[in-house]
Design goal:
329 residues, Tyrosyl-Transfer RNA Synthetase, 3-stranded parallel beta sheet, two-stranded parallel ribbon, 55% helix, 6% strand, binds adenosine-5'-diphosphate, binds tryptophan
């Protein structure tokens, strides 16, 4: 069975971008693939060198994973820092990665701009640690949102290069997996690019109905269409993206027709989006509360997950050591 792996950094609560961009795919995949999901706490050190109460941040996101429907019996969940084997592969991969290509990664350039006083080597080698996360399980598929495409390209390059240098067919080239037919970028409601923690434009899975509705009703719009069948400007297209991911096809079509004949009322459109988002988020929110209350179970799930992940990683690392020529210890 093909292996699947993916992770999210514990730098804040899960939002709808994370959910529709990645976690929903995780959940859909757990029945068909051999899945493992993890919490990328080492990666969060690249931007948050003093992570504060990391244990609790990890528990928070673990409860959110479970609430979204990840079943740890089918798909073990582990914490990245519990699997030290990853670091050995990270080292080998770094030996075959070049400064130039790492410096060209857009997320590196972006972060370097955002935190000019902390352009650390971890930030530069973020893609090789991500490649190690994936390749240590020899995963074939990785469910992530559009913003991770370049990191995924680096992971494939790491796999190819290792195979070429040592003349083996050891690592499969991991492919991005999208729940729908193409990469999804959940937009921000403030008219700007994507929904993301650092931009402060998120709807969180912990938000109550009132908060969600307020956020949606405040979404940026324009003055409305003036010509039938005109192209939608970005802010309106963004609202329709929410309809596409959260509402039924009939509802989408209904508002699309209203747009096309210029009779659309943005208030109604937003109310519909708010209502459909609340219907998705409310049950998840309730389950988050239940799972969060039981820290003993959360800790046990992470311990069990680490066990599975360590075994899987160790088998790969032993083989990598053998291929490079090191002793197996
Ligand atoms: P953030 O941008 O809020 O810090 P992360 O970078 O931690 O979110 O992303 C975790 C996962 O969620 C990744 O797989 C990423 O591709 C996905 N993701 C985050 N925001 C979005 C979005 N707006 N649209 C689609 N996927 C997203
Ligand atoms: N870079 C991913 C993000 O920002 C997190 C991540 C780390 C990841 N390692 C990974 C995702 C391995 C998929 C596979 O969201």
């Amino acid at each position: 069975m093909e292996k699947v792996v993916s992770g999210i950094r514990p730098t804040g609560n899960l939002h709808l971008g994370n959910y529709f961009g990645a976690v929903k795919s995780f959940v859909a995949m757990q029945d068909q693939y051999q899945c493992m999901f993890f919490i990328a706490d080492w990666h969060s050190l690249t931007t948050h060198p003093k992570p504060g109460d990391i244990q609790n941040s990890v528990r928070t996101i673990l409860a959110e994973y479970l609430a979204c429907g990840i079943d740890p019996v089918k798909a073990p969940i582990y914490v990245q820092s519990d699997v030290r084997e990853t670091l050995e592969l990270y080292l080998y991969l770094n030996m075959n990665c070049y400064l130039g290509e790492l410096e060209r990664v857009t997320t590196f350039k972006e972060k370097a701009r955002q935190q000019p006083d902390n352009v650390n080597a971890g930030l530069l080698t973020y893609p090789t640690l991500m490649a190690a996360d994936i390749l240590q399980h020899r995963a074939a598929k990785v469910p992530v949102g559009k913003d991770q495409e370049q990191n995924m390209e680096m992971a494939r390059r790491c796999a190819r290069r290792f195979n070429n240098i040592y003349g083996v067919e050891f690592f499969p080239e991991p492919q991005n997996f999208y729940f729908s037919d193409k990469a999804l970028k959940v937009p921000g409601l403030d008219g700007s690019g994507k929904m993301g923690k650092s931009t402060g434009n998120c709807i969180y899975l912990r938000d109550d109905d009132k908060t969600i509705t307020k956020k949606v009703m405040k979404a940026v719009t324009d003055s409305g269409p003036t010509e039938p069948n005109s192209e939608k400007p970005e802010v309106i297209e963004n609202l329709f993206t929410f309809l596409r991911i959260a509402s039924t096809p009939d509802t989408y079509q209904y508002f699309d027709e209203k747009w096309n004949d210029c009779s659309i009322r943005y208030g109604d459109l937003k109310k519909q989006i708010a209502q459909d988002l609340c219907a998705i988020v409310a049950p998840i929110r309730e389950r988050i509360e239940q799972f969060s209350a039981d820290t003993a179970t959360l800790d046990r799930i992470a311990r069990d997950g680490a066990e599975v992940a360590r075994q899987s990683a160790r088998a790969t690392i032993d083989e990598v050591r053998r291929i490079i020529g090191f002793r197996i210890i």
